[in-house]
Amino acid sequence: MTVRFHRRILLGVTGGVAAYKAAELTRLLVKARIDVQVAMTEAACGFIAPATFQALSGKPVLTDLWDPRIPNRMAHIELTRQADAILVAPASADFIAKIAQGTADDLLSTTVAARNCPLLVAPAMNREMWANPANQRNIAKLRADGVTLVGPDTGEQACGETGEGRLVEPAALLEAVLALYPSPRLAGRKAVVTAGPTFEAIDPVRGITNASSGKMGYAVAEALRDEGAEVVLVSGPTALTPPEGCTVVGVRSAAEMLAAVQAALPGAAFFFAVAAVADYTPQVQAPHKLKKSGEPVTLTLVPTVDILATVAGGPTPPFCVGFAAESRDLATYAENKRHSKHVPLIVGNLAQRALGRDDNEIVLFDAGGAHALPPAPKPVLARQLVDHAIRLAETQGAS
Q: Is 252 exposed, middle or buried (0-12, 13-18, 19+ CB in 10 A)?
């Protein structure tokens, strides 16, 4: 399986007193920036309400094989195709038997049977049920089929007895999930990202700006964060929610953006200049609102400082990635920008296909040529871009 860094887990909850621990596990998974979809058996709903998991995961809990919210009414297919892994915790003796025998008679068991991703099972049951020969045969079958068993622990049980069969603690279950993923490649490294438009004031109420939504820059910041980087996002005015786990510095003008970037840059390994920075700013900003007179108005515009070129031209620049939003002749302009600004990687796109939209179509230009990426949502393209930049930086560092 190819692990995606935007991590997604399907958490299956079956019937048992230990179901309350799955609520804490859900909280821990979300805190670790893992997208959690909870699916519950009918028996599980008798121990803990689905509303608890919905509140913790931020997603509706699925219990019905024929849930109308699932495309094509094929929940068992959709759920497993969207998940990096399935974790069943707690897993009752009955559900373990279903997995071992291939039984598929409800949403969760059918999803497990149709999976194409790793399966982790965390047993939870009375010590006698755990030791039962039939249960042990089923456990052996799961191991033989490549299922990962997490636990059980030995300790005091809900029935008052003490022995093996206790569900492992949520923190240990989180570690088992995290072990599925490779170590973040940018752990301990810093990245600075610019995003959104800049606003160049003409007077206190008017200004020069552009149609950039900031979505691509924010997606790049999140992709870097998911690779373990310490991310500083310098953002022009947008309507977007600040990405969790990133330091966000809000600015308005190109001059403010440059100052914020320079303040954040020490120690940075990467700089992604995603923002659509205004190329010009009014030479003079009127102190008061300019009143309409019906006569033509002439504005004298002066160039703004080139942020990308300034960073790339520093004495010890980080690995710099620039963006070229063009309306025509993309390859020519993007390559010219890469050479003139002396940066190893330029991301080119046609502005009319990207500005303000949720999806994009980009081409990566580096010393090895042009690399076109298929059209996709901006978060998907951001992860592919960050992966390409990391590998390119590693190659340059080794050469």
A: middle
* pLDDT tens profile 311-369: 999 999 999 999 987 778 888 888 888 889 999 999 988 765 656 567 778 899 998 89
Q: How far apart are CA 359 and CA 395, in angstroms?
A: 29
Residue 32 CA from chain centroid, whole number: 11
224: which DSSP letter? H
CA distance 180 to 148: 11
pTM summary value: 0.64
DSSP state of 276: B
Active site residues: 159
Give me the helices (H) in the chain, please.
19-31, 50-57, 75-81, 93-101, 107-113, 127-131, 133-144, 170-178, 215-226, 254-264, 307-312, 330-341, 378-398
Asked if 252 and 236 count as a contact pair (C-beta separation under 8 A), the reply is: yes
Contact at 8 Å (CB) between 209 and 199? Answer: yes
Place of tokens 């403010």: 256
Distance CA 178, CA 395 (A): 27
CB 265 within 8 A of CB 320: no
Q: Which residues contact 296 (CB under 8 A, 6 or more apart)?
A: none
Domains and CATH numbers, the chain: 8-178 (3.40.50.1950), 190-283+299-398 (3.40.50.10300)
Alpha carbons within 13 A on the beta-carbon side of 293: 6
